Amino acid sequence: MDKCRLSIIIPVYNVEEYLDRCLGSILDQDFTSYEVILVDDGSTDSSPLICDRYSATDSRFRTLHKPNGGVSSARNAGLELAKGEYIMFLDSDDALLPYALDDMMEVVTGEDMVVAGYAAFMGGVPVRNVRPRATVSYRSADYPKFFQDNIRRNCEMLDAPWSKLFKRKTIGSTRFNEELSYAEDKLFVFNFLAICSSACTCPFPVYAYHIRSGSLGSDIVSDRHLMQLRRFLPAYAEVLASLDRRYPSCRKLNMLYHNDIVGRYICRILNIFLTRKTQLLDADYLRWIYDMMAADPQQGIFSVRFAQAGNMLLYKIGNIDLSLKVYRFCSRLTSVLRKK
User: In this structure, what is the dihedral angle of CA atoms 130, 133, 134, 138, given to the nearest 10 degrees?
Assistant: First the structure.
């Protein structure tokens, strides 16, 4: 095999139903200068055997078996083994679309990162197609324009590490946060964006993202999710602050704290407090939320969605005890109505 240009890292955990589809989509690619690192993260089904079968029949496939440690631990283990010029992350229940590797490797000319598109499927039915608008190389002084062109609603282009290539040398010691099981992938992408200085876009869908019910991403109201957000948001805010300092005139970056942290995540937490009883609703948690909101210079009662005006008003009043009483009353009322 020629010098390996691409390392494809795939964390594997109890996905025997989907793994052949995932790995077959790699073998169907015309581009061949790759290695596949399968990280079996303590699977208890037949996934380890499937990984071993591919590794035994194709020298480009390698399998690492390790105790269960979560998807971040698996991806980090794969990064330690990777030898390719670029790194790609592929989830084992997803797949590459035809010509994905050719499309991505043809547009890259040494940039730190390639961002391509993806097609989302639910029950095998396409529900969303997200992709850059054009093939563009952003280098040096043009790099801030990458954010202007590719930060969209809910950061849909940059939320996940898949459908992207990362230059391995630029990744350096950057790793996934193993304390997180939610948004750890988004945090990795933004930590990488904060250290790289060039990127290019590929205006084709290259990745088939299969949305499954019961996945980690669908659990967004539990106490576990609330605790994950409390770990994730300060780290995300820190990397956004570093990007703001680096590119102070990039408006879409400057607005991410307001639009994403406050308008998306903080408002989600407050909505959970309004509609669901939780032991996490206390003065400490609410004070932490209000401190996060206070760091947003764009904050106003109607600065996010109109439906959030009540949450914004309570924050503006600034009385923690009053807010607690309102949220607890509303959550009890909602619970009673839900039972009827």
Answer: -90
The answer to whether the beta carbons of residues 17 and 99 sit under 8 Å apart is no
Residue that is written with structure tokens 């996010």 in the block:
304
| Burial zone of 124 (CB within 10 Å; 0-12 exposed, 13-18 middle, 19+ buried) | exposed
Share of the chain above pLDDT 90, in %: 86
Residue 217 has pLDDT above 80, yes or no: no
pLDDT at 36 over 90: yes
**What single letter denotes the amino acid at residue 250?**
C
Tokens 């020629």 -> residue: 2
Whether 31 contacts 102, CB under 8 Å? yes
- Has residue 23 got a pLDDT over 90? yes
Q: pLDDT at residue 218 above 60?
A: no
Which residues, including other chains, have CB under 8 Å from residue 149's CB and lie 6 or more apart?
A: 132, 133, 136, 138, 201
The size of the chain, in residues, is 340
Diameter over CA atoms, the chain: 67
Q: How confident is the model at residue 340 (pLDDT cuts 50, 70, 90)?
A: low
Q: Residue 14 is encoded by which pair of tokens?
A: 């109890």
Give the per-residue pLDDT at 328.
95
Question: What is the torsion angle, in degrees rounded to the nearest 10, for the CA atoms of residue 306, residue 309, residue 310 and residue 314?
Answer: 160
Residue 2 — pLDDT band, cuts 50, 70, 90?
low
- pLDDT for 216: 44
